[in-house]
Amino acid sequence: MRMRTSLRCLAGLGILAASGCGLVLGLDDFKDGAPAGGATSAGSGGGATCEPERELECYSGPPGTEDVGICQAGTQACKEDGSGYEACAGEVTPAKETCASAEDEDCDGKDCVAWARLIGGAEEEVVSDVAMDAAGNTYVAGNFKGAISFGDDVLIASGDRDAFLIKLSASGEYVWSHQLGDARGETLSSLAVSPQGDVIVASLELEHDISSMSLMLHRYDPDGGVKWSKSLGAKMCGVVPSVVAGMSFLPDGDVVLAGSYCGTIRFDDAHAISNETDRGDVFVAKLRSSDGSIDDESGWARTWGGEGAQHATDVAVDAAGNIIVAGDFRDELVLGDLSYAAAGGSDAFMAKVTNRGRVSWARVLGGTENEVLRSIAVDRLGGPAAVIGFQGVVDFGGGEVAADELVDILLKYTTSNVYEWGRVFHGGLIHNELLIDPTGDVLIVAGLKESAEVDGELLRAKSARDLVLLRLGIEGDPLWVRTFGVVGEDGIDARAIALGGSGEFLVVGETSGKIDLGAGVMVPQGDGDIFVASLRP
């Protein structure tokens, strides 16, 4: 029968000190040896180094991680001839944390979710966008009815619906908030945050009868102070409002915004663009972040139109300051000297624009039915990835793919517009937003209705709608997928995802039922509260 002794002499270094262990255990209970790695170490007189059949516990992980999460000690057995110990067997040491399960892989006592919190009130709240600065602070923008509380601060809507901006610390604690709107009501559509924590938000201000409107921009400093606010103008496109769909800070400190509009947008006294039809045109503009105007040397504004309607749905910026604008159109899309005709009802498009406003390339993504571009992101080299909803037969660059009903496809292209790979997701998986982390992995936040298949794994929703987080490798192979449901019949609406400087990422959305994202059960106050969760890389 083997005897087992538990030793922790110089734990984590795999070393047993003869005199030290003798003092701890008593020399009658211990024969000096070299258990770590099985090496022998005879004393000055030679002979056996351990007692045959004896076992020692062994653990080479960092101090404080043993018996935390998945980490556990193994055993080392003395060889039959007593010449030394076998290698440590069965130990589990810290590994990279993933969100594939609720297990604590890095053995720090925490799940993948670093923190999570609800934001809400007695009525309805909707989140529009989320971002993170270089220090890990979180910025959440959205809209609310009635009143909404942030810790001890309470905002009360002046109109039917007002907008809000909130800053949370790196640990999820409330820092400051702003309310946007008056009796006319204001709806926030997007925000951009600089690495230093300067914030620009875009909103839509509507009149009482919803016949007139204005696009608004507001800038705040890291402490929440208002630096400037301005109206851009624009008007309704029939019954559809003009909108700033996406916005981002550029490496040179300027800001780029893209969206759809009718009427006239006036950026400053010297720069304006116009679309006098009732069908939306795309606009893209590079503005000074200092005051929202256009610099005559480095700034610019572009409008893209054609027959039918054109819409921008997202914008992304690469490390060199190049801009990828994505959206969809009907009938025709004219990008300066480039012109494209829609193949079906509506087609998706991507266009790369230089920092100087010149279109480098464009790609139309269309087939026999309708295509909708949901989200776009770029890798560190500037190669875009896009999620597109499609139906029918489409060739996205890698050969024809077909779907009898609306499904989503994830597509990856190089910085020079060459197709790399695509992944089709069948079933009730609707992708809301994606990002690409510094390693090239793709992270997606999506909603799941009923069921969907991912890499041969069948996902089943626990409620009316589940939250799905999906990570794919640089070649598009799924690395892990995790679903979050709510307690009861109500569901979750996943909205947006944002990346931090250390690889952590944020997920936001709304929940109408109790939800546990890994940091404990959270209970909404009203019809639907906003959830914010920070997940570690």
From TrEMBL:
<keyword id="KW-0732">Signal</keyword>
<dbReference type="InterPro" id="IPR052918">
    <property type="entry name" value="Motility_Chemotaxis_Reg"/>
</dbReference>
<protein>
    <recommendedName>
        <fullName>Secreted protein</fullName>
    </recommendedName>
</protein>
<dbReference type="InterPro" id="IPR011042">
    <property type="entry name" value="6-blade_b-propeller_TolB-like"/>
</dbReference>
<feature type="signal peptide">
    <location>
        <begin position="1"/>
        <end position="20"/>
    </location>
</feature>
